Amino acid sequence: MAIRILGTGSYLPEKVVTNDELAQVMDTSDEWISSRTGIRSRHISIADTSTTMAVKAAKKALEDGGVKPEELDHIFVATLSGDHATPSTSCEVQKEIGAVNAVCMDLNAACSGFVYALNTAMAYAKAGMGRKMLLIGVETLSKIMDWSDRSTCVLFGDGAGSVVVEADPSRKIYIDAGSDGMKGDVLTCEERHLNNLLVKDDSPMQQVQMDGQEVFKFAVRIIPKSVNKILDAAGVSKDEIKYYILHQANRRIIEAAARRLKEPIEKFPMNVDHCANTSSATIPILLDEVHRNGMLKAGDKIILSGFGGGLTWGSVYLEW
Ligand code: COA
């Protein structure tokens, strides 16, 4: 049993902040940011929350897939920036769209979150536990950034992407996923201190902190390794792959991965220039853009691949 994607949707907050606008409030420049990352602008939430963005993306995916909310048996939301610890973002989405029959769960694998959500949906389909499932990657990273740290805050943005999937025995899907908690300290966010009757710790919560160069090296090494692994598992040659939809963190990472895979850069669609890094949302947002631009037809073979905090990584081979 595999799954197939019935529909996609995405949502980006209205407010666009360019590199030049950032340069007015911090010591940076369009030249520094764009030459190192390919990022020119990002969307930043003013009125939206993770829940409102997730709901808007989900409604579009359901409409695109011709699926009614009550047909859903599961909602999986990948996020590290949900609005509350509880209720989960997936339960909030359920309430807003009226998916009364869905079992709802959030999962956090940072920027690999959407691939992990696909992995979970595939496992549920295989186990006969899931038939029609809604998957969402959503982040309001602007609320957890350290806006005084120019080396990190310029890289991220807000947004949501969603797909609705159906269990389908006729399709092939292969997944590779991995984690390396031993190296987790190169990308961290919001240390939660003990603060109880017995222990007092009023030190401020930490926001996103990153060793950019270490993350860069990790990404460039792990993407080709993971992609080659699922190509082998699927018994598919690179020539047969139409697109590689990679996590949109940095144009240079994607170009390096393409070189290492010996694949033309044209097979790597990108939107990092106008979305920046929206963590678990980048892959479904880009997939939605590619689909809505008419770049995919039935049977096309594609690979999705993500990497990020944890450290975590994952790749999916699927047939459109
Ligand atoms: N504007 C201007 N200068 C900046 C800056 C900014 N926004 N941020 C950092 N700098 C400065 C630093 O202070 C440093 O100055 P110094 O040399 O005087 O100390 C210098 O730029 C560092 O530049 P460089 O060595 O060229 O940085 P880099 O090539 O390593 O690029 C990143 C930095 C963050 C863009 C790069 O490491 C990267 O993209 N890493 C991956 C991060 C990522 O994608 N994470 C998410 C993964 S899910």
UniProtKB/TrEMBL annotation:
Family designation: Belongs to the thiolase-like superfamily. FabH family.
Protein name from the UniProt record: Beta-ketoacyl-[acyl-carrier-protein] synthase III
Region (ACP-binding): 248-252
Pfam family for this entry, one: ACP_syn_III
Keywords: Acyltransferase, Cytoplasm, Fatty acid biosynthesis, Fatty acid metabolism, Lipid biosynthesis, Lipid metabolism, Multifunctional enzyme, Transferase
Beta-ketoacyl-[acyl-carrier-protein] synthase III N-terminal domain segment(s): 105-179
Keyword Transferase: yes
Functional description taken from the UniProt entry: Catalyzes the condensation reaction of fatty acid synthesis by the addition to an acyl acceptor of two carbons from malonyl-ACP. Catalyzes the first condensation reaction which initiates fatty acid synthesis and may therefore play a role in governing the total rate of fatty acid production. Possesses both acetoacetyl-ACP synthase and acetyl transacylase activities. Its substrate specificity determines the biosynthesis of branched-chain and/or straight-chain of fatty acids.
GO cellular component, one term: cytoplasm
